[in-house]
Amino acid sequence: MSNNNRTVLNVVAVSGGLNTPSKTESLVQNILDELSSAIDIQVHFVKLSEIGPLLGGAIYRHQLPERVQQDLEKIESADALIVGTPVYRASFTGLFKHLFDFVEQTALVDVPVLLAASGGSERHALVLEHQLRPLFSFFQAQTLPIGVYATDKDFTPQYTLQSEQLKQRITLAVARALPILEWAPAKGKRVSALAQTSKQANQNLGINTQIEQEGVLPSISVPDLSVAESRIHHKKPFVA
Ligand SMILES: Cc1cc2nc3c(=O)[nH]c(=O)nc-3n(C[C@H](O)[C@H](O)[C@H](O)COP(=O)(O)O)c2cc1C
Prior knowledge:
- By secondary structure, this protein is α/β, with parallel strands linked by helices.
- It has a single domain, classed as 3-Layer(aba) Sandwich (Rossmann fold), CATH 3.40.50.360.
- Helices cover 41% and strands 16% of the residues.
- The chain has helices at 23-36, 48-55, 66-76, 94-101, 127-138, 164-182, 190-202, 207-212, 226-233; strands spanning 2-3, 6-7, 9-15, 41-47, 80-86, 112-119, 142-143, 148-151.
- Strands 3, 4, 5, 6, 7 and 8 form a six-stranded parallel beta sheet that branches.
- The protein starts with a strand and ends in a 7-residue tail after the last helix.
- The model is unreliable at 211-221 (pLDDT under 50).
- The structure holds flavin mononucleotide.
- Belongs to the SsuE family.
């Protein structure tokens, strides 16, 4: 997508925070603000504090209300994701995971994902590496090198950011993300191509069926590996 011949990155933010106000939402919003000061982005923000009650009772994707269906389609067609969650019992919130259990399993291949979390203390900072990164590795997403972790004391009572260190961490995370985001694979072309295919494929599948069924969706987002494979199988000897 382009605006005055400039590429606009289609960024979807997801916060697993269940409270309002939410430190996690504030953290994710600060990352979005930093990113938008550097590049043109179009943002869709999915907040579990808003859709959690609509999501919790659904086992099959077709049971989800239209609003959540649309959020899933936005996630599946994003050029890049910024995901944040509060730490609950040393992991992401259950509803954050439940949302991603509905995401079509090939839709995020190669999609850059910036990881963020907020916790009560620093003791669970590795939730980024031990919980969030493996989840998005399952999706074959491109998890960005630097994640952002905040604790309660990084926020004012109004949940704005007060920690200079945290602000610097956000700047660093965005700076390291920019070169990757700028050659994000599809840059806005994903939206129309993926949305319909994904919707059809998922509509009648339960979570388990989706995981177990092989080749359920020859997703347009999956790069054609034949070129890479042919290189591997016809490897030329290295000449010094
Ligand atoms: C049910 C529950 C479990 C929590 N478990 C942890 C935990 O294991 N480790 C931690 O550091 N903080 C834990 N916390 C604290 C929250 O992660 C922390 O306050 C977070 O910033 C809240 O984010 P929010 O304002 O977006 O809801 C827990 C909070 C709740 C309500």
